[in-house]
Amino acid sequence: MKLYGVPGSICTTRVLVTAAEKGLDKTQLQHIPVDISAGDQKKPQYLAIQPFGQVPALQDGDLTLFESRAVIRYLADKYEGQGTPLYGSSNRDRALVEQWLEVESHNFNPHISIVLNELVFTMSRGEDPDTKLVTTHYERLDRVLDVYEAHLSRQKYLAGDFFSLADLSHLPTIFYLIRVAKKPNVIFRRPHVLTWWQLISNRPAWKAIAPSIMTVTKQPKTASTSA
Which helix (H) or strand (E) holds 31? Predict the structure, then answer.
């Protein structure tokens, strides 16, 4: 398989962490960097793989797949019997993982991505962030995390008492919020959310991948070219 992406970008990192949890090595998954600063994502040869000019994209034989959450689902299924069982062990587990993947995509990500875009990517281009927009979406993220806090008071992870794709999908954005945007309060002030974050961010797969995510601050176009 070939993975086209930007080392350290949020969405590429989501896929690389999944691969790490599955124990995939370089012979199973070849990472091909896409040079965003050179505009490689808009060149015809890349648009033939990802017609929207975003990263990452995966090629596996005659299958071409893009959108990071679709890719991580594919890897979790393809390597079901290898590494961490990221869908749990039953149909019930899988349904709950899918539910919380949808929550991450539709309730959590829209707000955190705007905060990160303004406080990290806009500022990396030497532009001033829209502070009103940041405040609005940080407050909305805060309300979403109230739901997480109540939910995580009853169980260790989002889909139950096992680590899954649903937890994994949050890793890059929360890392950015805490370490780069320097806006950790929404995580740190909630004891159950904080305990959950400490559990998922201390996994060996994440600790092996996390250092590379910092390099994305040198790639100012990445925010608008990741999916």
Answer: strand 30-33
Residue 1's SS3 state is coil
Domains of the chain: 2-79 (3.40.30.10), 91-210 (1.20.1050.10)
b/e string for 84-114 if b means 16 or more Cβ within 10 A? bbbbbeeeebbebbbebbebbeebbbebbbb
Whether the ω angle into residue 56 lies within 30 degrees of 0, i.e. cis, is: yes
Query: Block means of pLDDT (10 residues each) for the chain, length 227 residues?
Result: 92 96 96 93 96 97 98 98 97 98 98 95 81 96 98 98 98 96 96 98 96 59 56
Q: Are strands 2-5 and 57-60 parallel, antiparallel or unpaired?
A: antiparallel
The size of the chain, in residues, is: 227
Paired strand residues for 2: 30, 59
